[in-house]
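Input structure tokens:
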């Protein structure tokens, strides 16, 4: 059975999915046709139900549940992994006034946008760009500040940007829960047995990756956008953890909390009558 799957080219995704996409493990009869896209592109595709399986931002999942359920394996949750608000113009929050400040964000349906909006709801001017363009855009004064994710967490200081806030820390202090950044969705219409099989295969793929982590596979390196290997490994170490193997009770609690709070940014409430997770 062939399924379409979307993931980002970021090292955490390519690390997790390499083995199942490239014939290194038993996929239990499943074959995959994959697309590599920026996560906001994947979010917008998921809003339309275009793919069978997809990586998405948890910040937009409330509007995707009509098409999908959340799988247990393959996601990115944790503590100390949140988006950062950075600036060239401001060195601290003392001079940062969101009411008059322009901020660049990595996409309307990203978790970064949701967390930023929860912390700074009075922000008037938002600009949306692909995440890998934000660091340069802030350096080039296209906006007063920006919210960065992924590998930019490891490079912003050496490029002369100042951290104004760790949006993940704000979430953790408020909720005591890990930050649900990105998750894996699969079609709601699939049978439970197929959804469980997909979950098993993703988990098996990650277990294989952990067992062979001494050498990064070509699939990771080829799609890492000219990133140095040390940064690739920092990226994987930060975003791939036990929650990536299985959400568990804490992971599910964090996602429920984010779904509830997402109504503040995406006013239409998600369908409470939907089954959300694959059991």
């Amino acid at each position: 059975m062939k399924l379409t799957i979307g993931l980002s080219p970021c090292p955490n995704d390519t690390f997790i999915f390499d083995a199942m996409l490239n014939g290194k493990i038993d996929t239990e009869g499943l074959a995959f046709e994959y697309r590599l896209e920026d996560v906001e592109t994947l979010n917008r595709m998921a809003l339309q139900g275009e793919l069978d399986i997809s990586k998405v931002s948890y910040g937009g999942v409330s509007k995707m549940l009509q098409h999908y359920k959340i799988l247990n394996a393959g996601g990115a949750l944790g503590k100390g992994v949140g988006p950062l608000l950075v600036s060239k113009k401001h060195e601290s929050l003392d001079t940062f006034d969101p009411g008059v400040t322009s901020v660049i964000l990595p996409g309307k349906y990203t978790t970064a946008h949701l967390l930023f909006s929860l912390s700074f709801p009075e922000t008037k001017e938002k600009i949306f760009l692909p995440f890998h363009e934000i660091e340069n855009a802030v350096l080039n004064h296209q906006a007063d500040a920006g919210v960065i994710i992924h590998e930019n967490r490891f490079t912003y200081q050496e490029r002369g940007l100042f951290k104004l806030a760790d949006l993940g820390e704000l979430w953790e202090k408020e909720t005591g829960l890990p930050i649900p950044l990105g998750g894996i969705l699969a079609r709601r219409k699939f049978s439970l047995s197929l959804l469980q099989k997909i979950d098993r295969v993703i988990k098996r793929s990650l277990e294989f990756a952990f067992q062979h982590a001494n050498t990064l596979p070509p699939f990771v390196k080829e799609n890492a956008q000219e990133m140095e290997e040390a940064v690739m490994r920092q990226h994987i170490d930060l975003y791939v953890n036990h929650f990536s193997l299985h959400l568990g009770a804490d992971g599910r609690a964090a996602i429920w909390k984010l779904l509830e709070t997402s109504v503040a940014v995406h006013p239409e409430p998600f369908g409470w009558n939907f089954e959300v997770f694959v059991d």
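The chain has two domains: 2-78+179-264, 84-175. Residues 104 and 146 are 4 Å apart (CA to CA).
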